Amino acid sequence: MTALDIRERPSPNHDSRGEPPHVRPINMLVLHYTGMPSAAAALDRLCDPAARVSAHYMVEEDGVVWRLVPEARRAFHAGVSFWQGERDLNFVSIGVEIVNPGHEWGYRPFPPTQMAAVERLCRDILSRHRIPPYRVVGHSDIAPDRKADPGELFDWPRLARAGIGLWPLPAPGLARRRGRGVGVIERAGALADLARIGYGVSIGTEEVALAAFQRRFRPERWDGRLDGETSGRLTEMRMAVEAAQAAETQRRRTRFN
Ligand SMILES: [Zn+2]
């Protein structure tokens, strides 16, 4: 593993994370794709005062990492967002932009060199901040009605294997009815799982949140339709979140006793 090669390109687009006693701790990592035709165009936009957008880091396809905003400052990447009951997620998060033209300009796989750099950068961030694995998210997880990034080609399983975020393990004995619809009771349980994991679920927007979940955790099909396969993944992911939350609670108890 080579050391992180970070280049500096300060963006003017940041402000305070809050003044004491109202500073919220950094406890979330949000991954994006740039969704611009080129890396140069993305870098220009993230540093343009008129655009009022930024991120803490940007990772190019060849693995070059740019630092745009110091982690202690609030960058402008999440926008209107929601996760696990919380809003205004720029206050508590570190944002990483990953260069990819995105669905608008020719979405393509993230090269292994780029993923290796993303992995190293994320591990470095996680080593410095207390960010639980269930708070490593994609932009589409926290703003599913507006955003699709980093998208279904992003290698979340690779990051999870490196200890970055969660990936649900198959629960033994869980019936899989691939492609089949689910009944009313199973549907209610699945939507409860979706909310428990962290997604904003409200009447009329269930399909949008389901599609965001699928895009990340069942990327073969993200049509927002709740079939048996999606329902099973939701159960497995909810169990993974609960296990990680229990571990986090235990860790805090140990530390404060
Ligand atoms: Zn984004």
Mean pLDDT: 94
- SSE order in H/E notation? EEEHEEEEEEHHEHHHHH
So what's the oligomer here? Answer: single chain
**Strand-residue fraction?**
5-15%
Main sheet overview: 6 strands, mixed
How much helix, percentage-wise, in residues? 25-40%
Number of helices: 8
| Strand order, sheet with most strands | 1-5-4-9-3-10
CA radius of gyration is 18 Å
Bound molecules: zinc ion
- List low-confidence stretches: none
Global outline: globular
- By secondary-structure content and strand pairing, the structural class works out as alpha/beta
Count of distinct strands = 10
Compute the separation of the termini in Å. Answer: 37 Å
Tell me what you see in this structure.
It is a single chain. The protein is α/β, with parallel strands linked by helices and 257 residues long. 37% of the residues lie in helices and 12% in strands. A hairpin with a 5-residue loop joins β4 and β5. The chain is globular and about 50 Å long. The site of zinc ion has 4 residues, from loops. Zinc ion binds next to loops.
